[in-house]
Amino acid sequence: MRAMTPFLLGVVPFGLVYGVTAVDRGLPPTVAAAMSAVVFAGAAQLAAVELLAKGSPAAVVVATILVVNLRYPMYAASIAPHFRAFSTRWRALLAYLMTDQAYAVALVDYQDNDRSPSRRKWYYVGAAATLWVVWQIATITGVLVGAQVPPGLSLEFAIPLTFLALLVPNVKGAPSALAAVVGGAGTVLGTNLPYDVSLVVAALLGVLAATALEVTRETPNDTPAGEGS
Questions:
Q1: pTM, full prediction
Q2: Which residues cross the membrane (predicted)?
Q3: Do residues 205 and 180 lie in contact, with contact meaning Cβ atoms separated by under 8 Å?
């Protein structure tokens, strides 16, 4: 819980923004609150709210959530060796509770090879459950506040501002910058695509562009000096 506390300074306002925005975009308060418990992924929840408000098909909403959360399989592969001693039920619970913050603090703690399996399990649960509880309280508070906002006061600006706040700190180096530019431009240019699939398509294009740039930069130049025109 001590290790997770500094992260809560960002989690609380994020949860409030999600709750207020979900209600403002027409989601019933009970559904908005339930999404935090079922999905439990802030960026994916905001993306889902935006698509649901536009009447997008369920398949597009689910596909978008999967794309936004593509980092979690990588987290899982990285932390899985530390969880091999746990039962299937425990691993399922730990997977449900996984967040960027819980993953980060757990891996730092696990660098001490003397940690017993029980210590590893309860350290992760303590960190992850702390964030889960705070997230639920923050989003429910946002839902209650959002229900009191006059209909004429639009809060649509909250979604792009929140995503920008998540994006900017993670743009590190040319590949991530290229992914951000391609993804953002593709989303805007694909606004008129059917079923609002522009977010999914643009995200995939951004990943492909960044990957291509990394491969190009890592490929050595095999042309001997003096050859070529």
A1: 0.70
A2: 122-145, 157-181, 193-213
A3: no
